[in-house]
Amino acid sequence: MKKSNLVVLCILLCALSSQLHAQTWKSLFDGKTLNGWKQLAGKADYKAEDGTIVGATVMNSGNSFLVTEKEYGDFVLELDAKIESTLSNSGIQTRSHFNTNGHTGKVYGRQVEIDPSERAWSGGIYDEARRDWLYPLDLNPQAKTAFKVGEYNHIKIECIGREMKTWINNIPVAYVIDTVDKTGFIGLQVHAVTTKEQEGKKVYFKNIKIQTTNLKSTPFPANIYVVNNVSNYLSNYEKQHGWNLLFDGKSSTGWISAKGTAFPAKGWQIGNGTLMVLASEGKEAQNGGDIVTTKQFGAFDLSFEFKLTPGANSGVKYFVTLADKTEGSSIGLEYQVLDDELHPDAKLGLNGDRTLASLYDLFPSTKPKRFIHPIGQWNTGRVVVYPDNRVEHYLNGVKVLEYTRGSKTFNDAVAISKYKIWPNFGLAKQGHLLFQDHGNQVTYRSIKIKELK
After folding, report:
1. Are 428 and 332 in contact (CB under 8 A)?
2. In which element (H, E) is residue 21 found?
3. pLDDT per residue over 60-85, tens digit each?
4. Which residues contact 425 (CB under 8 A, 6 or more apart)?
5. Which residues contact 300 (CB under 8 A, 6 or more apart)?
6. Beta carbons within 8 Å of 423's beta carbon, 6+ residues apart
7. Contact 107, 96 (CB under 8 A)
8. What is the CATH number of domain 233-451?
């Protein structure tokens, strides 16, 4: 082929590629008008100015939303957003809805947060007017610095099947696998304000484009925690990066009695994808007794869902060696699982160190009330033990406690606790995981672990 013909061919291929790219992406904003959009709920002032959608806060208004007239299912959405004040807040609704299913006068659905406050959760995923936070940035703290206040930030959102991913300025932020909302509108939020100081603050959106065909999931880097709302299920990403289920949703495989060689014949019930300890008048380890993993673990990332009944008590223990000889529950570091309002143990101990998500009898958890799901609803607990002995407790995505095994602070706490009679308590290199039978009905599911190197 002649060189001149090769050049022509390259030009034609580049032009064709550019044309195909243009065909797969569609602009949602013409730069001049709000055609294709409508305002719902609040009274914020939305205008099209200089190629930008500008939303301004107003007093005496709830959250306001400028939403697409069209609904979308699977898509990749990209846009640039700027917020001018740390006093403001905004977000981008995805697959959302209005005024249905009991949400009278409200927009509801998954929202990608724009958070210029000191908390810095931009790119996190919030479920507007429904489930609250799904992916707080405590789960990916490295991404907190991605968003820049007072500057345009490039935001990318993927909603493909059950998976939703977000990026801020090309930095991966949040990853949620969810079971609700297959379709819905896209919306631009102006948050409600309550003070004169917040009035008139603006948020800007431009270069809004969407792709709905020829979609391909963009890979996420390793070691980003996934909020997986599909029970007892691991995604390909989770499997690829070392996660394993400890409960298959069907059997007791991998679990035995803490005081025997088989799974308890009574006191525990497996069914409907759950692992349930049955009520027995609140007696500790006197019915079915505690259960432990057959495998032992050192450094790990453990995640589990639990549902309490009124007044219930249980716990998830780690570094359980089974070397102790006790009549009650086996000894180990314990993530407390408790109804703080109705169980008396919450009032005992020191400074609340026996409350939900605390390190039992050693360190209290610090948890905002909004992150405690009501009794009868599912909560997600998480324990991360790093190879250097740092430990973190999480509740529903928020870090509520951190400490270091073997530190002076840890040893001092042990010395004044119930554990002081056990030498080297909590310092084993590895141990079993234990789910406690405290005589109250508590249900578990989606128990998964990743061993850390």
Report:
1. no
2. helix 3-24
3. 999 999 999 999 999 999 999 999 99
4. 331, 414, 419
5. 318, 383, 384, 385, 449, 450, 451, 452
6. none
7. yes
8. 2.60.120.560
Residue 118 CA to residue 86 CA, distance in Å, equals 8
Return d(Cα 184, Cα 93) in angstroms, integer: 9
CB 252 within 8 A of CB 409: no
The string of pLDDT tens digits covering residues 297-330 is 999 999 999 999 999 999 999 999 999 878 788 9
DSSP symbols for 205-218 = EEEEEEE-SS--PP
CATH of 25-211, one of 2.60.120.560, 2.60.40.10, 3.90.1150.10, 3.40.50.12280: 2.60.120.560
β-bridge partners, 404: 390
Query: Shortest CA distance to 203 belongs to which of 191, 185, 195?
Result: 191
Predicted TM-score (pTM) above 0.70? yes
Tokens read off for 237: 């990403």
Q: What radius of gyration do the chain's Cα atoms show?
A: 25
Q: In the chain, where does the domain assigned CATH 2.60.120.560 lie?
A: 25-211, 233-451
User: For residues 100 and 128, what is the distance between their CA atoms, to the nearest angstrom?
Assistant: 14
Q: Give the 3-state DSSP-derived string for 99-120, with helices as H, strands as E and coil as C.
A: CCCCCCCCEEEEEEEECCCCCC
Interval 144-172: pLDDT, tens: 999 999 999 999 999 999 999 999 999 99
Angle, CA 316 vertex, CA 430 and CA 413 arms, to 5°:
75
- CB-CB contact of 428 with 404 (8 Å): no
Q: Containing H/E element for 401?
A: strand 398-404
What is the Cα–Cα distance from 193 to 171, expressed in whole angstroms?
A: 29
Write the DSSP string, 274-332.
Answer: EEEEPPSTT-TTSSS--EEESS-BSSEEEEEEEEEPTT-EEEEEEEE-S-S--SSSPP-
